[in-house]
Amino acid sequence: MSIVKDVEARGMHHCETTALGVLLRHEGLDLSEPMLFGLGSGLSFVYWDGRGMEFPFLGGRVKPFELTRNLAARLGLALTVEETTSPRKAWQNAAAPVDAGRPVGLQLDCYHLDYFRSKVHFGGHIVAMYGYDEHEAYLVDTGQQGGAVRTSRAGLAMARAERGPMTARNRSFTITLPAHPLSWQDRIVPAIKDCAEAFLAAPIANLGHRGIEKAGKQVPRWLLRAGEPRHDLPQAALLMERGGTGGALFRALYRDFLDECTRLIDDDDLRAGHRLYAEAAVLWTEVSTLITKAGESGEAGYLEQAGAILHDLSRIERDAMRTLRRLQLPPAAPGPLG
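The structure assignment produced for this chain is given below.
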């Protein structure tokens, strides 16, 4: 048996920020989940209805692991990433940090994890591993999945090796703080501006505020698009609210991030952006409620209402990001992480 000492197995709302929290707290940096999400410029939007998909997917964040890369680059953290097609090497890459007294992050397909109650394939799931014995691995997952959990090593190996959308080749990673780390407070504005720029300059119409507008046009047709409306629509709504998003398709997390920032930075544009995302979070929850009602009742009128709200949300989020993009960058100055 090998167990990392003094790991705080705190399960949060979202898988990637939960794993990041475990790794960074062990390094001595304890940030709230909204702050981790915001510093990683995690907010985005995608309307995804690819060939062969049973039903469209609404995504509210950047692609898996991009948040981790963003956060490490922004705070000057040393991010060490390992990938391999060898099962033996994959286990060595995961076990070695634990044996050395450090938790390790793993990207995998949650379908194969013993403790997952909902058996669906999602290859962008991320957990922290802090121990193992002959038969099981000890993980930290979201609060919804149980926080400190265990899964069989055989199941973990299958989860890490799975191929398909959003999967990685047995990806494992560790994070190390530098000897003279940057002040995370000084990196808030760059993180907000980068997120706003990416959201506003999305290259295709499925992304950013244009993606939300597209969703507003497509969602009213979902009763016809669905193979099983009574299942497909409530499931889509459930993923928006409870699929590791923190509620409101990650807008609640970003709202709380901006609220935390207003307590550190005195800026009218920042406060305005926070107010707009507080409004957006309420409306996204209303959209998911209407989608559920449409699936349960078969009434298309609920989807028409949802489409109209999505049209408003496209404008609200566009205006919010244009406002946040105006924030002034602070002068760069090294300092201790607090």
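Interim note for the steering committee: The beta strands are 2-3, 43-48, 57-61, 78-82, 104-108, 125-132, 136-140, 148-152, 172-176. The first helix runs from residue 15 to 27.
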